[in-house]
Design brief:
Anthrone_oxy; transmembrane helix; mainly alpha; membrane; about 140 residues; DUF1772 domain-containing protein
Length: about 140
């Protein structure tokens, strides 16, 4: 049972962390080079699409990490990993979702407030750093 939980945690968390790194390191910097109209459409579409998928992925990751922490009770690495994921969810819901919702409402002809997108990007890099730490701890917990 423990091996299944560990494997499931890695298989759910790993790709999620990879997607978030890709958004921060590649997708958004490419969007930043677009003219205002294309930038507005790209960021708006990206916000809407990922805004539908990521909440489920985040919650699935959190649930699996909590379950793994319960199964592997006493393993501080997996417990800390679950706590970091909970912090990521809290940061996302309280600070990033409101910005993401505003970005998702941009439409053709709207002035693209790049400063709002930059604020989201800075918070996203913070989230990515915490997610990387979470995944490293998870990997070490599984490797033990």
């Amino acid at each position: 049972m423990q091996a299944i939980g560990e494997t499931l945690a890695v298989l759910i968390a790993g790709p999620m962390v990879g997607v978030e790194i890709a958004v921060a390191a590649f997708t958004n910097p490419i969007f930043d080079r677009l003219d205002d109209d294309a930038f507005s459409r790209a960021r708006s579409d990206g916000s809407r699409v990922l805004g539908r998928v990521m909440p489920f992925w985040y919650m699935a990751t959190l649930v699996v990490l909590i379950a793994a922490a319960v199964v592997m009770s006493g393993n501080w690495l997996i417990t800390t990993s679950a706590v970091l994921m909970a912090l990521v969810v809290l940061l996302t819901v309280t600070m990033m979702v409101p910005i993401n919702n505003r970005i998702g409402r941009w439409s053709d002809g709207d002035e693209a407030p790049r400063d709002l997108a930059r604020r989201w990007d800075r918070l996203h890099w913070l989230r990515v750093a915490v997610l990387i730490a979470m995944f490293v701890l998870l990997a070490f917990a599984v490797a033990r």
